[in-house]
Write a structure and sequence with these properties.
The complex is a heterodimer of chains A (187) and B (439). With 187 residues, chain A is an alpha+beta fold. Chain A has helices at residues 11-14, 24-50, 56-59, 93-101, and strands at 64-67, 76-81, 84-90, 124-128, 139-140, 145-148, 155-157, 162-164, 176-178, 183-186. Chain B has 439 residues and is mainly alpha-helical. Chain B has 16 helices and 4 strands. In chain B, helix 5 packs across helix 10. Chain B is globular, with a radius of gyration of 25 Å. The chains are: A alpha+beta (187), B mainly alpha (439). Chains A and B meet through loops of A and helix 7, helix 8 and helix 12 of B.
Chain lengths: 187, 439
């Protein structure tokens, strides 16, 4: 139903090139102009895309220090680091034993318990408290004595390893070090 | 917008304007004189209802933006300020929040109407695709709008949806960080969501313009699915459908008024009355009702990437529908077997929505009792898996194959036939002309 009258009769003749030109000179100018405009468009687009990335002050977020002596055996503290929760867990001997006993059980993201804590400090488990599925904060619970994510039911054990549910990876470990037996520096 | 125009300027001003900017001609051709099939039922009024919703959302939204503060420290309190201190702020925000929900109710009915009557089939594929684009934009707009009050559900809704992009191999984490503008959902995220939530409705309005344009080229489908054959099959849009759409909009406004004045929080979640806390996820989170079927499909798949693909694929299937359906008939009115699969599809979609509101491990059908006394049996996850299979099979198996094997009924020769002869499909040669004379 589109009207034929919409077609512009002028367009029939505009692109006729003179016979002696072979089109080469004009084609070159067209290609060069379009290429320059294309490169320019990409160069202009980049700042508009990159501005969405974390700003300098966000990137400069300092590391934090935390006194772990106030975390009693069997309890877990939640502290905020880079806008995310970090779980500082003072594990009981039973929790450590459970985690070590499962070292060779079939797991989605196999890891030994020893690789999840600092050498000689199995009682301190420090993990980022963000479910590796879709980012919710897991709660204490679940069939493996660790965490249960309220959003989609991922279950982590006492070593923060994924044992059931949709999450693909173990809870991430932040960069941290013990400055003294009771003081830990995260980040 | 296309085709022959019957507009005759009546006043000197109209004549003056018509040769300079024929905008009155455009309005006359598309909203007054536009030839519309005379047998459209009330399922066809939802286009007008959706236009009403879009205008309502833009008007109330612009007003709310005058009082809202897109800052993670101030956002929650600024919404309370709107609800308690701003004159009629409670009214405007309740309309905005509840109309958003009913907007989706209307769009789902509008989409299902298209699926039932085959409105996506040739020559209306582009019309259908533009509708799918509008639906995607609506989902993005609704999601970002839901984040703005910065309550617990706002926050964790933002966390879960943005984390979906983290499932993309290799670049997933870079993309989520880029979306957040930080290492977690925070002030930068809220600020950009506000800017985009303000922008997207105007993009929707633009695509709606294209949608209406693409409608007015082939004209409306109709309940018989039979193409318009002559002028006798149509009536002018005004007054026939302006009045019918107007009546439907009034009924819809009564429903909206019920929610706004008597149950303003019925469609929301109580957890969103708690300010966002990045350190504590609510014990039970679920999206608004209109996203729950997709949420259930996401959870049904025990693999992050495949779950995300299943969820987006469920919307993606709508884009392919015009090329998946092999039936020669448009309307399911004449496809008795297909009609049952369609009823099944609606039941499945509602059941998926129910699953999306439950905990994954909840038991749907109790089959026994565990040693600790808990019920065991068919879990919400397993149930969702069956439903997801049906949802996909409807598009990928039923629509392509049934067109070859089904027994169909015979549709009428023209739209006018069943109106005048109560379903008789064979009509004597002179009857059509006679019918036209009778009006």
């Amino acid at each position: 139903m589109v009207e034929a009258a919409n077609a512009n009769p002028m367009t029939q003749t505009v692109h006729d090139t003179p016979p002696e030109d072979h089109g080469s000179r004009r084609d070159f100018i067209h290609i060069a102009a379009l290429s320059a405009a294309g490169v320019g468009a990409v160069a202009v687009a980049w700042p508009f895309i990159d501005q969405m990335n974390p700003s300098a002050d966000t990137l400069a977020l300092a590391s934090i220090e935390y006194d772990v002596s106030k975390v009693m055996v069997g309890s877990r503290a939640v502290i905020k680091w880079r806008g995310k929760p970090v779980f500082v867990c003072h594990r009981t001997p039973k929790e450590i034993a459970d985690a070590v006993a499962d070292d060779h059980s079939p797991m989605r993201d196999p890891a030994t318990d020893a690789s999840r804590h600092k050498p000689g400090k199995p009682e301190w488990l420090i993990v980022i408290g963000v479910c590796t599925h879709l980012g919710c904060v897991p709660n204490k619970g679940g069939a493996y004595g660790g965490w249960l994510c309220p959003c989609h039911g991922s279950v982590y054990d006492t070593s923060g390893r994924i044992r059931a549910g949709p999450a693909p990876l173990n809870l991430f470990l932040p960069d941290y070090e013990f400055l003294s037996p009771t003081k830990v520096k995260i980040g | 917008m296309s085709g022959h125009s019957n507009y005759v300027p009546k006043t000197a001003i109209e004549r003056w304007l018509d040769v300079r900017l024929p905008i009155v001609r455009l309005a006359y051709d598309s909203a007054i004189d536009y030839p519309t099939p005379k047998n459209l039922n009330y399922w066809w009024t939802f286009g007008g209802i959706l236009a009403f919703c879009l205008v309502t959302q833009i008007l109330t939204g612009v007003v709310l933006a005058m009082h809202y503060v897109p800052n993670s420290d101030l956002a929650f309190n600024s919404v309370e300020h709107i609800m308690r201190d701003v004159d009629y702020g409670w009214l405007i925000r309740n309309i905005h929040a509840n109309c958003a929900s009913l907007f989706f109710l209307a769009v789902y009915i509008h989409i299902l109407r298209g699926l039932y009557y085959g409105s996506y089939k040739a020559p209306r594929e582009v019309l259908w695709l533009l509708g799918c684009v509008i639906y995607l934009l609506m989902m993005a707009t609704a999601f970002m709008g839901y984040v703005l009050p910065w309550g617990q559900m706002s926050y964790y809704g933002a966390v879960v949806i943005t984390s979906l992009f983290g499932a993309i191999p290799y670049v997933g984490n870079a993309i989520t960080t880029w979306l957040w503008g930080g290492f977690a959902v925070g002030n930068d995220t809220l600020n950009r969501f506000f800017a985009l939530h303000y922008l997207l409705p105007f993009m929707i309005a633009g695509v709606v313009g294209l949608h209406v344009w693409a409608l007015h080229v082939p004209g409306n489908n109709n309940p018989t699915g039979v193409s318009v054959k002559s002028k006798a099959d149509t009536v002018p849009f005004h007054p026939y459908y302006t009045v019918k759409d107007g009546f439907a909009i009034i009924v819809f406004m009564i429903l909206l008024a019920f929610y706004v004045f008597y149950a303003p929080n019925a469609l929301g979640d109580a957890n969103n009355s708690i300010p966002a806390n990045p350190l504590q996820t609510p014990a039970h989170i679920t999206p608004e009702w209109y996203f729950r079927p997709f949420y259930a499909m996401l959870r049904a798949v025990p693999n992050k990437l495949l779950g995300v693909l299943t969820m987006f694929g469920a919307v993606g299937l709508l884009f392919l529908t015009p090329w998946l359906d092999t039936s020669k008939l448009r309307s399911m009115r004449y496809r008795p077997t297909m009609r049952w699969f369609f009823v099944g599809f609606i039941v499945v979609a509602i059941a998926l929505g129910w699953c999306g509101s439950k905990e994954p491990a909840d038991v749907v059908i109790k089959l026994g009792t565990a040693p600790n006394g808990d019920a065991t049996g068919l879990s919400v996850t397993t149930f969702s898996q069956f439903l997801t299979v049906y949802y996909y099979a409807y598009f990928l198996v039923v629509l392509p194959l049934l067109g070859f094997t089904e027994k169909t009924l015979t549709p009428p020769e023209t739209i006018s036939t069943p109106v005048l002869y109560h379903g008789a499909s064979a009509m004597p040669a002179g009857a059509a002309a006679q019918a036209e004379k009778r009006g």
